[in-house]
Amino acid sequence: MVGTAGHAAPMLLSNAIASGCKAAKANLGPGLVLWALAVAVVAAYYLPGGARSALIQLAAFKLRWGYGFAIVSTALWGGVIPTLFLRLFHPSQRVKLSSLLFLLGFWGFKGAEVNLLYDVLARLFGTESTWRNVIMKSCIDQLVYGPFWAVPTLALAYLWRDQGFSFAKLSKSLNRHFYETTALPLLLANWGVWIPTVAAIYALPVGLQLPMQNLALCLWSLMLVFMTGKPATKQEAALV
Length: 240
Prior knowledge:
Layout: H1 2-26, H2 28-46, H3 50-89, H4 97-125, H5 131-162, H6 167-173, H7 178-202, H8 206-228
Helix pairs in contact: 1-7, 2-7, 2-8, 3-4, 3-8, 4-5, 5-7, 7-8
């Protein structure tokens, strides 16, 4: 039995890595669109013109409303808008009220969480968009916050939804291999898409980081809706 258990763990890890890499390859096309959007927004901010003025006003508006903006905006762009598009373009896909309320609450909470992350990183490294700051913030975001908090909580929340919002069923689904079988594939699937996008986010001033995250999150969710005809699964869900 010990020998069997010893061989099972490496096999689970190997399968999880293979699953995550396969999903990452499938995400490459939409990822390229997302990267192009991120580069376009960064360029629009740093080049003179009307777009820069509009982005400066948006940044000021976001800073004025703070966490209220983060919660409402992320709930709308991450939860409501992709769901409405799913219902509009795929009428056969029924969207339950409980699922919509879950998406509103979950992405609203994530909006406050990501806003806190951006504020903490700004205090630690400053608000200047230097190469050093962009790299340091991106590394903490994608190598610390993502693997140790964002991905596990996302996986748990979507698993809870898939279990009919039953904590009893959720507890039965959790075991010591939860991370490598559920969270790790999700992490690998999103790294290829979100590492370049996150770098672009941190190249913007603090007031535009969360709006840019929201825009990328919504576009990513919409592309998944059009590709699959269903809401993002926990392995496809957008993360920043």
